[in-house]
Amino acid sequence: MSQDEGTAYICRKNFQVIIVQAVCDHTMKFTHCYTGEVGSVHDAKVLRNSELWSYMTTGAEEKFPNNMHLLGDKAYPLSQTLLIPYKTYGQLNSQQRNLIIN
């Protein structure tokens, strides 16, 4: 690997990374894994590059019945099938802050 290729693996925390995206079910068993993206790739782009994105965005009504959702990192985009934490930019109301703390 050349020096230039190696820099692609440097993440925002300044060390080399190969990204792994994983999904587990309510029993903590892995149901999906995606790996191989270099550390410089943003988490949201990793999601969009994975098979999970097309799974989530096509036929979601049948795949996620009864108001079921995936829980994701705050770097992911909020969607009908993916819930993410509040992005705290200091503008949360008291009810939203209470949900984060509790």
Automatic annotation (TrEMBL):
Residues 4-97 form the DDE Tnp4 domain. It comes from the Eukaryota. It holds the Pfam family DDE_Tnp_4. Its cofactor is a divalent metal cation. Keywords: Metal-binding. One of its GO terms (molecular function) is metal ion binding. This is Uncharacterized protein LOC107268626. It comes from Cephus cinctus. The lineage of its organism: Eukaryota, Metazoa, Ecdysozoa, Arthropoda, Hexapoda.
